[in-house]
Design brief:
- This protein is an alpha+beta fold.
- The protein is built from five helices and twelve strands.
- β1 and β2 form a beta hairpin.
- The longest helix has 15 residues.
- It starts with a helix and ends in a 9-residue tail after the last strand.
- 29% of the residues are buried.
Amino acid sequence: PTQEQIAQARAKVGFEKLELDDQNRTVRFTVEGMRLDLGAIAKGYAVDKAIEAAQRCGAVGAMVDLGGNIRCFGTPPKGRDHWLIGVQDPNSAIEGTRDGGLLFTLKVNDISIATSGDYQQFALIAGKRYSHILDQHTGWSAEGLSSVTIITDNATDADALSTAVSVMGINTGLVLIEKLPNTEAILVTSGPKYEITKTPGALKYMK
């Protein structure tokens, strides 16, 4: 897209351009041509609702996974003390080994995990990879982080935070996460090195 097209798109982005009417339960856009997209939170919310349903039905344990948004509770599979979650190596995914190449494994109980990244959904234009996660400040794809994994109490928060930190970047993102209770992050910088940075409390989950 041209710079003019980017500017036109950015003019239609921002929560401040929504007017919410609590009484009538309506939403009004202040700029023509806007749309609502719940892609950064809807799957996490659905995971939480699925877990609630399982608990109401008497399940003693379950794991729900919707495209990298995961929550587990209760008794793990027979013979295990923890639920095991594999996080893919961005480098192996980009090279085409999408069913393998784990970067690390997490051992968890009664917690939620969400991973966002630039290595599963992207556009390749003139040899450059553009992530599906967009930075609203620039209008271009977010850069600097290839993978963001958030570990926290519920899947809705994990889903939202993994996307937000992908846009915020490593430094600002870590500052945010370290302010939040019961929340950890594991960040993988963009290639070619794919270096891992994590919050201090994340280590206890890494196998």
